[in-house]
Design goal:
Mean pLDDT: 84
Radius of gyration: 22 Å
Number of strands: 0
Largest sheet: none
Shape: globular
Strand content: under 5%
Oligomer: single chain
Length: about 450
């Protein structure tokens, strides 16, 4: 009976998430030409690079968000409401304590480092780069704190609500960018405000709905701040944090390296190819994400039959997406032409080598996620951490070396090569845990 309820809730979240992501995809498609209209190729490449750097601030929560997600799912599965509220309260106040020094540190770095040289930016084109960076950091820092509301819904096995909050932020961004287009304003500063302020406003609006209406029993209170709860959250959260940082290094460094070694304009074709093929990862994430917290619930209740059935379903999805990626490569040229040259109105050329490597990279990442979502639900992360850190360390010299021979394609090839070992190990570890043959590091 419990298994049927879990599956039913999971399916509802998947269906709702598909509808949300469909709208999100439309919003992203509309944002591309509107943002390019407001900025042009050069400044758009700069904004994409800045956006990737801002992800660092957005993810520096020492894993508290994902730690809350796992702990909350586990505590609610056990029916312990008091501990659940302690986890929520402790996470919220710790995020505030973490964010204040981080924001100040970022401001110091912005005013100390020469970002014009770092990102190979012409100072005459972007005269107020430091102001743009500081304002963006301020907005992202606010989002950093209040986006924990989304983690609460993830812990409640309601990922569709978390997706709704994200999509609302994207939609508000679209409205603001469209207003800039109507006013014929071409300002990187205002575009940065539109992109970074919108999500914060959405989370601020979600606060009273979540804690005053829907879940008052989980509302953060200083009276429920618990040092032991912080330790427990940190114990699991730091593992997720390391995984986040390793993944972030791989994702954001590519944009920075392309901008530095080649030109900010070269970031645009790379990002277009990424957005094109990330459609498959979006589909897989919609389907697979609800399994994370549901797996935590099943693992706590030792429902291994449900877990085994679930992985078989995801493996079938994986095969379908592999076929989809092949078709996307075959038809990439006409789709690029329609999307970029006609829809966007810019003459951007995406080499076939970048297209093929990006498709291969997406397949590796999706294959890895197929098993990592379950491992995350188990809370067994050590091998993921080891291989993610190894990938992050090896990537830089390998990307630099291959880019000397193959230009931007070399960086993509390096991304593929460093992620393959982790994907293979994730698969092996999952099967060892389920078969009961895992020992030592395989079950830690």
């Amino acid at each position: 009976m419990e298994s049927n309820h879990r599956t039913s809730l999971l399916k509802k979240n998947i269906y709702f998430s598909f509808a949300l992501k469909g709208w999100s995809g439309a919003v992203q498609l509309l944002l591309v030409p509107l943002t390019l209209f407001c900025l042009g190729n050069y400044e758009n490449g700069i904004w994409m690079t800045i956006s990737s750097l801002l992800l660092w601030v957005d993810h520096l929560d020492i894993g508290l968000g994902n730690g809350l997600r796992n702990k909350l799912a586990s505590q609610l599965a056990q029916g312990d409401i008091k501990k659940a509220r302690e986890s929520v309260s402790s996470t919220f106040f710790m995020l505030i304590l973490v964010m204040i020094p981080l924001a100040l540190l970022c401001i110091v770095f912005i005013n100390t480092l020469d970002f014009y040289a770092l990102l190979n930016i012409d100072k005459t084109v972007i005269p107020r780069l430091n102001d743009i960076l500081m304002l963006s950091v301020a907005c992202v820092s606010g989002t950093f704190i209040f986006k924990f509301i989304g983690n609460i819904y993830l812990g409640l096995q309601l990922p569709a609500v978390n997706n709704a909050l994200v999509v609302c932020g994207q939609t508000l961004t679209l409205i603001l960018i469209y207003l800039l287009k109507i006013a014929d304003i071409h300002s990187l500063m205002l575009v940065a405000i539109a992109y970074t302020l919108a999500p914060l406003l959405v989370y601020l609006c979600a606060w009273p709905i979540t804690f005053n209406v829907r879940y008052p029993h989980l509302k953060p209170s200083i009276a429920y701040f618990n040092k032991n709860a912080v330790f427990e959250l940190f114990n699991i959260g730091i593992k997720f944090f390391i995984l986040q940082i390793a993944g972030l290094i791989l994702f954001t460094s590519s944009n920075v390296m392309i901008s530095h070694f080649f030109s900010p304009e070269m970031v645009t074709p790379y990002q277009i190819a990424y957005r094109y093929f990330s459609f498959t990862m979006m589909i897989f994430t919609i389907i697979a994400m609800p399994f994370w917290s549901a797996t935590t619930d099943a693992y706590e209740k030792k429902d291994y039959v449900w877990i085994a059935k679930s992985i078989r379903s995801l493996q079938k999805i994986l095969l379908l997406l592999a076929v989809c990626l092949i078709l996307m490569v075959i038809f990439s040229k006409p789709i690029y032409y329609i999307w970029v040259n006609i829809w966007v109105g810019n003459d951007v050329v995406i080499p076939l080598s970048i297209t093929i490597c990006m498709a291969f990279y997406m397949m590796i990442i999706i294959s890895s996620l197929c098993y990592s979502y379950f491992l995350n639900g188990f809370g067994i992360l050590r091998l993921q951490i080891i291989f993610s850190l190894m990938a992050a360390v090896v990537y830089f010299p390998l990307a630099w070396l291959l880019s000397r021979w193959l230009d931007v394609t070399g960086m993509l090839l390096a991304l593929c090569l460093v992620n393959i070992p982790g994907a293979v190990v994730n698969m092996l570890q999952f099967h060892k845990i389920m078969n009961g043959t895992g020992k030592g590091i395989w079950i830690k």
